[in-house]
Amino acid sequence: MPLRELVWSLLYYPRASAEVKWKHGALSLNLGYRYSLIRDTLAPLRSPLYEHQGELTASTYHALPDLEAFGPLTTRSYVSLRLPVDGRWAVQALEELSFAVRLNPRPLIRFLSLSTVNLEHGADDTGAEYYLPSGILEARQVLIMNALFHPADYSRVFEVALSGGLGAYAKNVFKEGARKVNLRWEAGLTATYTAGNFTGYGMFNVSGLAGGSQGQNANDYWQITGTLGVRARTPALLAR
């Protein structure tokens, strides 16, 4: 967001948030609250509308030190409740499990598995000027092969990752006769090179939906995205 737009939005549409974090052993809890503007309602001919949002995240991290080539094993549970001030509501519940296997110590080559189940649902959106989910249920499995190349002093690091995933995407799961189920697929390639204060990176991803319910392919689509970029940290300009 441009600086001018950010300052303008803060002055005319203030927001508030609070966050509490707690950690004990392998468990981390994060409880958050936010009162903010619904960005969809900033469109022309719409009335700006605020919402309350509360969210809770519970994460665990297990290093598995007794299994040399395995780990870490991580989990993440997330729930949120959105309460727009017009009386509508939306909820989300997500469960995530990831597991890594080290295939080679140097260069470091790892195989990662990421499993996700996500459910989103909201009130009837008739007349609403913003997005509300309607019985969205998604189950996804992503496999990632990651390799890290570097000299002993880590002065240069090259990392490359190849990923692929399959899953099911359904909408209107609570509406009899209106359910739609699709196969969701994705594949990606990411490469990053870091040397000193310089980092160059590139990302390529292709994804889509296929196989509409009851032979309907109206929801089928595919897309390709790509990103190239560089980052550089400038050295301190003032001598210490």
Task: Explain what you see.
With 240 residues, the chain is mainly beta. The chain has one domain (21-232). It is 4% helix and 62% strand. The chain has 1 helix and 11 strands, in the order H-E-E-E-E-E-E-E-E-E-E-E. Strands 1-2-3-4-5-6-7-8-9-10-11 form an 11-stranded antiparallel β-sheet, with no helix packed on it. Strand 7 and strand 8 (156-171) form a beta hairpin.
Summarize this entry quickly:
The chain is 4% helix and 62% strand. It has 240 residues and is mainly beta. Strand 1 and strand 2 form a beta hairpin.
Global geometry:
globular
Helix-strand pattern, N to C? HEEEEEEEEEEE
| Uncertain spans | none
Number of domains: 1
What would you call the structural class? mainly beta
> What is the tally of beta strands?
11
User: Which value, in Å, is the CA radius of gyration?
Assistant: 22 Å
What is the mean pLDDT?
88
The helicity comes to under 10%
Report the total helices.
Answer: 1
Record keyword descriptors for this entry.
mainly beta; 240 residues; 11-stranded antiparallel β-sheet; globular
Architecture blueprint of SSEs:
Blueprint: H1 3-12, E1 16-24, E2 27-37, E3 50-62, E4 70-84, E5 90-104, E6 108-122, E7 136-149, E8 156-171, E9 180-195, E10 198-210, E11 221-232
Antiparallel strand pairs: 1-2, 2-3, 3-4, 4-5, 5-6, 6-7, 7-8, 8-9, 9-10, 10-11
